[in-house]
Design brief:
Length: 291
């Protein structure tokens, strides 16, 4: 089985229904998975009770009160009842085949990182995911309305409990943290699996006027985003840099020409100690690459 953990925003305004939708979708997957809700945001304890999740109010935060990824991952590892963990943003709706997808990847590797694209959509109502008819209606309607997000935005991470020994003090909800995790997994030679083709996750659109933000930090850098930037120092990758993909009922290694060329350009940043050799190989590869 699996442990999911997240840290929601205040359950007020639009975030009331989109976060409850997300949490309810997680619980509808199985009554047996462990869900941990971190932080003392308004309404989070009540939401945790509604979905029978563990509630942990104390999290180490920045001076502005935003949780540190380092403490979230550390506490989740200590509290997890299961060997597989998932960090997920609290506005993400998971599909019914989530556990099956995780199982396929877990059966293929003893250690891995599973990520994937999200599909953006406006959701303006509460969805009862325990009701099979309404659940089916939601997903059928979504097929015609969802829009795939750019590969740089990653909203869920599935991994083995012992994958991360420690996480730097990245600030949650600011750019770079998610992309550094992909870089770090590649650096550790851990298989990174893109589940996008088989697993559709829904991001419920929202504004960015909350907590100490007014606009999207990805397009309008601010102090905490700059803090993350200093930590990762450009060591970032995205979904396109995953080394495997979930396809049908199997996990397949990415071997197409497009990925190979892209990967050769990324390897020097992953293994800078071998950058000279990698760049030389890249030149030879291009020289003999079939036209």
């Amino acid at each position: 089985m699996i442990t999911l953990f997240s840290t929601p925003k205040n359950f007020t305004g639009i975030f009331s229904h989109i976060q409850l939708n997300a949490l309810r979708s997680w619980r509808s997957i199985s009554p047996d998975i462990q869900i941990i809700i971190f932080g003392d945001s308004k309404g989070s304890q009540e939401a945790a009770l509604k979905i029978k999740a563990d509630y942990i109010p104390k999290v180490r935060c920045s001076q502005k009160g935003t949780p540190y990824a380092s403490d979230l991952f550390k506490q989740a590892k200590e509290l997890a009842k299961f060997p597989i963990l998932t960090f997920i943003n609290a506005d993400i709706i998971l599909p019914n085949n989530f556990l099956n997808s995780v199982s396929l990847v877990s059966n293929s590797f003893s250690n891995y990182l599973m990520i994937g694209h999200r599909w953006d959509r406006e959701v303006n109502e509460y969805i009862d995911f325990e009701n099979s008819e309404k659940n089916e209606l939601f997903w059928n309607k979504f097929k015609n309305e969802g829009e795939m997000h750019a590969p740089s935005g990653i909203d869920y991470f599935v991994f083995n409990k012992d994958l991360w020994k420690s996480i730097p003090d990245f600030i949650i909800g600011r750019p770079g943290f998610d992309n550094w995790l992909v870089w770090k997994a590649r650096r550790k030679l851990i298989p990174v699996v893109d589940a996008s083709e088989e697993m559709i996750v829904v991001h419920q659109n929202h504004h960015f006027n909350f907590h100490n933000l007014k606009v999207d930090p990805k397009t309008n850098p601010e102090e905490e985003g700059e803090s993350n930037k200093k930590i990762h120092g450009g060591k970032t990758l995205n979904i396109l840099d995953s080394t495997y993909k979930l396809e049908g009922n199997s996990v397949k290694k990415k071997n197409n020409k497009e990925f190979k060329v892209r990967n050769l350009h990324r390897l020097p940043s992953i293994f800078p100690e071998f950058s000279i050799l990698i760049k030389l190989y890249r030149r030879l590869y291009k020289l003999f690459l079939p036209k």
